[in-house]
Amino acid sequence: MDVLILILQLLLLGYRVISLFNNYTFHWLVALICESWFTLCWIFAITTQWNPAVIQTYPERLLQRVEELPAIDLFVTTADAVLEPPIMTVNTVLSLLAMDYPSEKLACYVSDDGCSPLTLYALQEASKFAKHWIPFCKNFNVQVRAPFKYFSHDNQNDGYDDHSSTQDFKQQCLRMKDMYDNLSRRIEEACTTSIPSSRLEGEFADFSNTQRDNHPTIIKIIRENKKEKHSEGLPHLIYISREKRPKHPHHYKAGAMNALTKVSGLMTNAPFILNVDCDMFVNNPKIALHAMSVLLDPEKGQKEVAFVQCPQQFYGKLKNDPLGNQMVVLFKYIASGIAGLQGPLYGGTNCFHRRKVIYGLSPHEAEKGNMPEIPEKKLKQEFGASKELVNSAAHVLEGRTDSPNNDINISKSLEAANQVTNCGYEYSTGWGVQIGWKYGSVVEDILTGLSIHKKGWRSEFCIPEPMAFTGVAPVGLPAAMSQQKRWATGMLEIFLNKNYCPLLCTIFGKLHFRQFLAYMWILNWGFQPIFEVSYVCLLTFCIITNTNFLPQGPALLIPITLVVIHMLYTLSEYLATKLSIQEWWNNQRMSRIYIMNARFSGFIAMILKLLRISNTVFDITRKDQNNASSDGENLSDDDNGGTFTFDESSVFVPGTTILLMQLAAMVIKFIGLLESRSGNNNIENNNNGYGIICDMLCSLYLIICFLPFLKGIFKRGKYGIPSSTIFKSATLAFLFVSLCYTNN
Ligand SMILES: O=c1ccn([C@@H]2O[C@H](COP(=O)(O)OP(=O)(O)O[C@H]3O[C@H](CO)[C@@H](O)[C@H](O)[C@H]3O)[C@@H](O)[C@H]2O)c(=O)[nH]1
Ligand SMILES: [Mn+2]
């Protein structure tokens, strides 16, 4: 099928080229360019899917093989106590702390880019709750260790929990539920009663007179797992809000990740790092053991694998995926395909990293005996002025395996930790450039993963049963749109990055050729809108001006077969994944909507950045736990539950414009047809009947895709498209139609 579709595409291109030689028209040249790009994209997609691979892990064998499990530092990022409710972060943290892994090997660092006392308060309370929760989970071998999910109605325990019927368990469970309800009530109350920032006291005094983007570093050790005190055996828990000042770029999530890397380097310096966004939680408590099975594998794992990525899966899935953001089929085909190449792309969350790779080592350097002797001066240049940090980095780079934190007292590193999270600390160091999470793109994850693959490292997917992590997908169209827009912009930023353009990485670096094509497949999210929007404009232009869009005569069969086969083929993928036809259609439609609205807006944002008119920003996705988990099941299509909501954002302008353009084209065409009939002319002089029908069908297809927008035009409130957007779109559509006439 892949090849058949490719051949049809090539035939179409061939036809266009030949026709262009015979009779040059500008619009056929545009069609040729767009279709060439679509063909290229198809090549990106098929080479990526052709060698799928799955890795099987056996964690129970791991303990027989290694004497001592390595330490893991756990990173959680949160950035806004309103968009990301603290109770959500709390659940992420609790699920991490309660993993099946020796507690003394874990340390959890939470970065709060929102600088919110609420987050700190919530974590403090959570830490008290953890004293009861963790033993409960471990004693009864609970599977879901995020309490909100454990106690929610739709947790069926999936048969993974033991003991679930004993009396003792029932009692304990009720007690836990009580405590958790108490905890969430207290946190909720704190969130609703806002204390003026000047009246914060005690531990929270540091937050007085702080603003989101203007405050000193605040680091709080919420729990320290001190050996001598015979503590309760809970992991360390540390709160970090790095210093931010206006005019100092803070590099969004990448900056936060580097702050976490530096602070954890000073405090526990674990050789492995697990990073999880606050909207995800651990669903499989053994996941760290699974990941270590790969990373500690003596044959390949240790030498070649830089990171282990677990897929992003979501709970509370809306029926038939009306927003098209569950990415189930995508993960199945593309992701397992990439796993068979150089390995999955880094997805920003649910990922286990090797610290030395983050510190810039290549596989060759990391091999025993090849460890470079790095002079202290160079280390200082890269890691910055902190002596303590340089020492801890040297420890990692030399590949010493003794755990450095045996005698570490976390509180002692507080001063150094404050120094390294200073907003000026990274100036003229290697952070964000040679080491750490890379700066320069709002999809820092793909960029960072690419920089690692460029060095020649592999990565692996880890897909244990039950699934490793789960979380919330954006709820509502505006949130999903802003996420897609950010991704598109970020992909373009990566392509234009002089150090990490994938093409250069494969020519000058060690990025495998097919892995390069896989990266192009995803970077195409930024390019695709240019071609799709041009193609659609071309279609409209042709309809309005009575020119041919599709080939004429028998050649018309090429695009028709192509479209039909492609549709059946993608549909078969959905059916093979046990998804419904409705879901397939929703995903098709949403791709059009995302590409022509959000990703196109992302492209425009990139142009504005290049023109230095505005800079790109990381807009945080709004998270709504309740929506996703409780009512989620009942929502089905765009009519219920308000899935298709709109806001004032400009991302909705392109789509509304395209819709209006199609409507205009249809009306113009019909009037034209009526007139020509009454005038008893030849139906068209240069257009055959089938051609017109097919052009109109394409336009009709777009109208059906944009049906939610059509409804939105007539609705009010959040279900309606704001009149300002309609006005802008109508103006643009009018300009376009006039332009068609002047060029006719
Ligand atoms: O200035 C910022 C902005 C965001 N974040 C955190 O980054 C994470 C991801 O943000 P979110 O709004 O959830 O974005 P998503 O679109 O869901 O994120 C996807 O895309 C991002 C890149 O654009 C990746 O970093 C994420 O891991 C990936 O899940 C969250 O934990 C945020 O708290 C920060 O720490 N600081
Ligand atoms: Mn997210």
From TrEMBL:
Entry's localization field: Endomembrane system
Annotated SUPFAM superfamilies: Nucleotide-diphospho-sugar transferases
Main location: membrane
TM segment ranges: 26-46, 516-541, 553-572, 593-611, 651-671, 692-714, 726-742
Keyword Transferase: yes
Topological relation to the membrane, as annotated: Multi-pass membrane protein
Key words, A-Z: Cell wall biogenesis/degradation, Glycosyltransferase, Membrane, Transferase, Transmembrane, Transmembrane helix
InterPro entries xrefs: Cellulose_synth (IPR005150), Nucleotide-diphossugar_trans (IPR029044)
Pfam families the UniProt entry points to: Cellulose_synt
Stated name of the protein: Cellulose synthase-like protein H1
